[in-house]
Amino acid sequence: MQKIHMASHLERQCKCGATLSIRIHDYGLLTYPEFDAQLGQQDFPVVPLKCPGCDIEGWPEHLTMYNLTDGKMEPAVRTRIGTDGFPVVGGEALPYAVTLTAEEQAEYDRGLEKKDDCYQEHEKEFWSTYCDHALAKWPQSLRELTTKEFVAVYQALEMPMLPGHASTAVWRKDAEKRIAGDTRRLFWRLSNRYLVEEEFIWTPIDTWPMEEWVREYGRDRVTYLTLHVPLPEELERWRTKALGKVVKKRSGESGVLFERIGQLGRDLDRQRNRSAELSRQLSDARQENAVLAEQVGRLRREIGELKSRPAVVARDMEDVRKIRALKGLVAELRGEVERLAGLLPAAAEAPEALPEPAAPSREEVDLSVLAGKTVLVAGWPREIIEREGCRMVWHHGDSVDVDLQALARQADVYVVLTRCCSHAAMWWLKEAAIDRDVPVVFARETNVERILEIVAGKIKARG
């Protein structure tokens, strides 16, 4: 049996015109059945691709299957990522029109595992109602059968075959004459066995090619099977999506219902496309933000370097002369003061030393204003402390990391320990405080009680 060598690639088109491609799986040399069995059995991570030319990072847009059998890299199949036929697991933050959460994917996988058992459990009841439906409008039902299906059922029933050039209409007329009574049920089941078991049951429901089936097997037949083929409960939402692709405008009450289903399906597609576009815009904005943040950081570093440099002042020679003259005058005045002090009479007795004033006692600070608040202290790593009805969380303050950002989102007050916290963390907290309208307190002490007193004073002063 002939073998093929296939490989999967993630690809995207960069804004600079470059095509970026990365291989995610090499299937090796396999026969067609072996390759078909492996398809859909692997989970591949979808990761952003960075352009080496312009350094712009973006999400891949297509999955391309390449045929490497003859030593050449020829594209065989190209599928757009984030469509109904190729959803992405990862949530709505991804820039794709169709995304599934991990829970939704797990639900879908459970449904696929149950699909065969569900069909076998309801097989007898399903075929009974399906045959009743077909027999109730027998001539119309025969009109939707294909020549291929007529040939298959004639062979199965060992009926005389028509000439090979016979058209579908000739097969249909012949079946109307020969097939009658209970034979019609068997005829209908045999003619539809492939469509039901090899198309609807065997094909994963999220890849049902509804438009293709409608063209090949007829809209009425495909619509009925989409509505009634046995499926586990976990796959019902996918049945609804598939149904929205085959319904068309009809008259009557049921026609309005079908048309509404189609409208909802089209509206869902529009919302998904809009969500994908907004996600792409958000991704571009985040990249621009990252570039701006890097530029701001660089400017801050340059400002810090400028501040740390000693100031060099070039003085005018006239100013130098004046300074020297003033220094000479000060020296003369100091000598005159000392001479005059020597002329004063000596004091008979030294005045009695005044007692040193007692150190003022620190007033007790009301800490009730801290009740229910979370205080972030940056510059000293400690365990979380519950004190005076408030919660104190601590961070080492060495750098701005994800822990500091997460704690800042929770806190109502920021405390910067000036002797321990880094400049980078201090500046970041000051900016975060402005964005969130949160007070910032600067303290030298590491004592918990003193920190709480300073914070309480700040909150009271702020009103």
Tally of individual helices? 14
For the biggest sheet, the summary is:
5 strands, mixed
Helix-strand pattern, N to C? EEHEEEEEEHHHHHHHHHHEEEHEHEH
The number of distinct β-strands equals 13
**Biggest β-sheet: strands ordered side by side in the sheet:** 10-11-9-12-13
Question: How far is the first residue's CA from the last residue's CA?
Answer: 84 Å
Give the helix proportion (percent range): 40-55%
Structural class of the helix and strand makeup?
alpha/beta
- What general form does the structure show? elongated
Q: Rg from C-alpha positions?
A: 41 Å
Mean pLDDT: 82
Strand content: 5-15%
Which blocks of ≥5 consecutive residues have pLDDT under 50? 347-361
Would you write up a description of this structure?
By secondary structure, the protein is α/β, with parallel strands linked by helices. Helix content is 51%, strand content 15%. It has 14 helices and 13 strands. The chain has helices spanning 32-38, 102-135, 138-142, 147-156, 168-178, 183-201, 210-217, 219-228, 236-243, 252-308, 317-343, 402-410, 423-436, 448-462; strands at residues 3-13, 19-31, 49-50, 57-58, 62-67, 74-80, 88-89, 99-100, 374-378, 385-387, 390-395, 413-417, 440-443. Strand 10 and strand 11 form a beta hairpin. The relative contact order is 0.05.
SSE layout:
Elements: E1 3-13, E2 19-31, H1 32-38, E3 49-50, E4 57-58, E5 62-67, E6 74-80, E7 88-89, E8 99-100, H2 102-135, H3 138-142, H4 147-156, H5 168-178, H6 183-201, H7 210-217, H8 219-228, H9 236-243, H10 252-308, H11 317-343, E9 374-378, E10 385-387, E11 390-395, H12 402-410, E12 413-417, H13 423-436, E13 440-443, H14 448-462
Parallel strand pairs: 7-8, 9-11, 9-12, 12-13
Antiparallel strand pairs: 1-2, 1-5, 3-4, 5-6, 10-11
